[in-house]
């Protein structure tokens, strides 16, 4: 056989294997020398993420190591922004265009620790990601938009030792990241894995803003620069102990610690003002912020399969963490004289303990009944204070910004309990159903100056998921879900302590009334949880070679929507003048609906007339279209906060034939859109687009190198807030900077 033909055959073989669901090769029973016969050999294709997704009893998207490793990301948020129906804004995960509070984040099936950030977790520490758009009974129903469950690395079946070193650059100077993973089966049923990561960051934002206030009497323009940098360390050790064939014990730890700093400056120029407005002269201010954050968690899980029909799972966990910070703000007039010297410090500590259990039993040949309960208790202790020098006095001295409030301790205790029952029913070879009900209660008690309150919310959430196969042997699947979900107000929304806008003095001879665009904020302890009734319907078709096409629609009807009320001018105890104040209130209702399209697969399977079946090109694309309406706010743009009208993701991966090189790209696009925030205030969000790309080369069996860039071709991002029937507005823009990185991986 000629060499090119042999090479073509070798390249074609993997594609042929991927295209088969299962290949059984049976040799004829021909006698062999020595009366030996060849045994029947079964070769089974390893299940892909698409296979696992197809077999899930509810609609769930699964992403494993291939997706996590593809771009060599050092932050999990960079992986998530490329997934269908997900975007990351300001460090917050948003599903279906809804704000971060609508999306539930779990780590190994349990709520993420307080203060947890997606940027604290290296993708190398993650086994897989599970994205669920409709809630299930065995997980909290605080998931109106959906749930992200981060499954940390499990102990491997064979020894695993790999090391990663990376160098990245965005601005000023490069930063490094490193990771090491060691896993093995020690003796018998005892196995462990120890992933460790070290990372740095260095981000620079250049901002421009323009403000017209005081009913058009004052025009301000600012330009500034902010640099955030720091370093962090995390690890997630896991120990698995198989006690016997039916019992296992698992210990999972998660530890993260980082140090952060921010330094910046801002120049504000007064372009226009008149005698009717009291405006400080043009000034230059500088700021510094530094602090630490840490979180620790340890969980133990016990599983026992009593027999073929019954099993039990018990979990317990403890965690702690907190943050400390200090910030300084200095403002100087154009002649160099001091205008503002302000100092803020604070610290908080969080502790939590969890206990849960569930019991499952087969009922007949088609039902699996599961019942369980959960109990969680969290405490938070916080102290924060701001002081400033009062230059209105001949002898300036340091004074509390809000006397009687600043520096006063605050604490809160949150107790969450839940019980649930569910039934997974295999009706026949075409129909299956998942039905359940969950009752959850959250009780919050707070103590502190101006923030004493007790709040209790109780929510019962019925759930129904149905799957239908038009052809029992076919690859088409129709899914439908009718569910109840909710969003409870967090502690910061409930606390009645004020947060003041420091652009306007609150005490002394320079005390001024602030503006509608610069209000103070105060919490509302009377907030009730938002309730959402949801309908999801999707058609999925799974292609023979592992491709997928899906089209779905959804609707959520939300009652008691939490929304920021319009600013109100009132007398307040923390200021010598009246102040504009905003708080959050429960409106009547809102609705949101959308269309979700997704396609992915090998180019030769998706477009057989354009590509050969052996072409090593994978394509993927998703289009999400969203609409929403808030009943108590006039249109036409009375949509839910931050929900873009549509989002388009598309990308491709290609493997070269002549060299061991993989390359690919992923693009994300969203349009500019308006949101009517209240009766008098609206906000415009600027268009967003971004391109990520990578190229990876396998140097040897043990070594590989990957070069990548995140965030190419991004336009200016920002918002413009305007007031109806007024010339006042506030425009804020920043120019994102792309990240360039090179990563080397060595497998021992």
From TrEMBL:
Protein name per UniProt: TonB-dependent receptor
Primary localisation category: membrane
Reading the lineage from the top rank, the first entry is: Bacteria
Q: Which Gene3D superfamilies match?
A: TonB-dependent receptor, beta-barrel domain (2.40.170.20), TonB-dependent receptor, plug domain (2.170.130.10)
Q: Where does the record place the TonB-dependent receptor-like beta-barrel domain?
A: 250-656
Organism for this UniProt entry:
Pelomonas cellulosilytica
Q: Biased composition, Polar residues: where in the chain?
A: 33-47
Where is the secretion signal located? Answer: 1-19
CDD domains tied to this protein: ligand_gated_channel
InterPro entries for the chain: Beta-barrel_TonB, Beta-barrel_TonB_sf, Plug_dom, Plug_dom_sf, TonB-dep_rcpt-like
Ranges where the record places region Disordered: 27-53
């Amino acid at each position: 056989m000629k060499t090119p033909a042999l090479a073509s055959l070798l390249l074609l073989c993997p594609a042929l294997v991927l295209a088969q669901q299962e290949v059984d090769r049976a040799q004829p029973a021909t006698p062999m020398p020595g009366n030996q016969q060849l045994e029947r050999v079964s070769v089974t294709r390893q299940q892909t993420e698409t296979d696992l997704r197809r077999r899930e009893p509810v609609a769930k998207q699964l992403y494993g190591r291939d997706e996590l490793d593809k771009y060599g990301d050092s932050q999990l948020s960079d992986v998530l922004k490329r997934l269908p129906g997900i975007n990351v804004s300001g460090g917050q995960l948003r599903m279906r265009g809804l704000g971060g509070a609508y999306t539930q984040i779990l780590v190994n099936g349990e709520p993420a620790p307080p203060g947890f950030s997606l940027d604290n977790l290296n993708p190398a520490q993650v086994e897989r990601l599970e994205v669920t758009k409709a809630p299930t009974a065995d997980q909290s129903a605080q998931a109106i938009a959906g749930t992200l469950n981060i499954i940390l690395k499990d102990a491997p079946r064979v020894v695993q030792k790999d090391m990663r070193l990376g160098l990245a650059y965005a601005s000023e100077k490069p930063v490094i990241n490193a990771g090491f993973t060691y896993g093995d089966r020690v003796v018998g049923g005892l196995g462990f894995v120890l992933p460790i990561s070290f990372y740095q960051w260095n981000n620079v934002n250049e901002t421009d803003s323009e403000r017209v206030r005081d009913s058009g009497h004052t025009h301000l323009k600012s330009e500034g620069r902010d640099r955030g940098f720091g370093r962090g360390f995390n690890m997630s050790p896991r120990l698995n102990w198989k006690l016997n064939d039916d019992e296992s014990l698992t210990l999972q730890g998660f530890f993260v610690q980082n140090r952060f700093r921010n330094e910046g400056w801002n120049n504000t120029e007064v372009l226009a003002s008149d005698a009717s407005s009291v405006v400080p002269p043009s000034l230059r201010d500088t700021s510094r912020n530094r602090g630490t954050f840490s979180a620790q968690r340890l969980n133990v899980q016990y599983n026992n399969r009593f027999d073929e029909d019954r099993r039990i799972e018990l979990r317990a966990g403890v965690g702690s963490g907190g943050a400390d910070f200090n910030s300084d703000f200095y403002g100087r007039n154009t002649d160099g004289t001091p205008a503002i010297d302000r100092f803020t410090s604070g610290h908080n500590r969080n502790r939590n303990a969890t206990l849960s259990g569930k019991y499952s039993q087969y009922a007949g040949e088609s039902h699996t009944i599961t019942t369980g309960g959960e109990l969680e208790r969290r405490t938070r202790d916080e102290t924060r204070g701001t002081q400033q020098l009062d230059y209105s006095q001949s002898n300036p001295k340091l004074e509390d910004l809000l006397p009687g409030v600043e520096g006063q301790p605050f604490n809160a205790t949150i107790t969450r309990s839940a019980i649930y029952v569910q039934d997974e029913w295999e009706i026949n070879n075409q129909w299956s159903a998942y039905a359940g009900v969950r009752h959850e209660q959250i009780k919050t008690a707070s103590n502190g100056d101006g923030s004493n309150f007790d709040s209790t919310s109780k929510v019962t959430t019925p759930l129904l998921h149905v799957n239908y196969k038009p052809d029992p042997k076919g690859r088409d699947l129709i899914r439908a879900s009718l569910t109840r979900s909710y969003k409870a107000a967090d502690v910061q929304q409930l606390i009645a302590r004020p947060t003041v806008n420091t652009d306007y003095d609150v005490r002394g001879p320079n005390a001024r009334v602030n503006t509608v665009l610069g209000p103070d904020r105060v919490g509302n302890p009377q907030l009730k949880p938002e309730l959402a009734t949801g309908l999801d319907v999707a058609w999925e078709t799974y292609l023979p070679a592992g491709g997928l096409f899906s089209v779905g629609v959804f609707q959520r009807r939300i009652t008691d929507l939490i929304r920021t009320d319009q600013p109100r001018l009132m007398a307040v105890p923390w200021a010598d003048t009246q102040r504009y104040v905003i708080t959050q209130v429960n409106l009547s209702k809102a609705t949101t609906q959308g269309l979700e399209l997704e396609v992915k697969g090998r180019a030769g399977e998706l477009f057989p007339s354009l590509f050969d079946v052996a072409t090593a090109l994978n394509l993927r694309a998703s289009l999400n279209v969203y609409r929403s309406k808030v009943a108590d706010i006039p249109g036409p743009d009375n949509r839910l906060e931050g929900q873009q009208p549509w989002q388009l993701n598309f990308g491709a991966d290609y493997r070269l034939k002549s060299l061991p090189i993989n390359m690919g790209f992923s693009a994300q696009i969203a349009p500019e859109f308006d949101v009517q925030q209240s009766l008098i205030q609206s906000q415009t969000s600027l268009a967003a687009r971004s391109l990520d790309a990578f190229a990876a080369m396998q140097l040897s069996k043990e070594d590989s190198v990957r070069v990548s860039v995140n965030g190419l071709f991004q336009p200016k991002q920002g918002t413009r807030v305007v007031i109806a029937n007024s010339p006042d507005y506030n425009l804020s823009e920043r120019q994102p900077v792309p990240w360039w990185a090179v990563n080397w991986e060595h497998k021992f």
